[in-house]
Design goal:
Length: 124
């Protein structure tokens, strides 16, 4: 069992930057392929970014590619999502998730553990 806790979400202006964090406890984060997902009001939850156990391989949704960067610090048991050039359409609750699968997966169905989410609001 692993417990994930997101933090760092807040109100930012359009074009601003923000870094959200996901701290894990219970088991070493290095065992897990990690992902960030988001859910905007009245929309389905969607994939944002993912990172393999070592941090060498990263994956992004087309909507955030070039603006967001996912990273991890296994020594700190933490995964980060750096968000730059934020747009109003990035407004959502951001969730981190972990999967024990050893293959690459961007499908939320494959993720076993989820945090409670952190609200990111981008003002227009």
């Amino acid at each position: 069992q692993v417990l994930l806790v997101e933090s760092g979400g807040r109100l930012v202006p359009t074009g601003g930057s923000l870094r959200v964090s996901c701290a894990a406890s219970g088991r070493p984060l290095s065992r897990y392929f990690m992902g960030w997902f988001r859910q905007a009001p009245e929309k389905e939850r969607e994939f944002v970014a993912a990172i393999n156990w070592s941090g060498e391989d990263t994956y992004y949704a087309d909507s955030v590619k070039g603006r967001f960067t996912i990273s991890r610090d296994n020594a700190k048991n933490t995964v980060y999502l750096q968000m730059n050039n934020l747009k109003p359409e990035d407004t959502a609750v951001y969730y981190c998730a972990a999967t024990l699968l050893t293959r690459t997966t961007l499908s939320q169905r494959d993720y076993n553990y989820w945090g409670q989410g952190t609200q990111v609001t981008v003002s227009s």
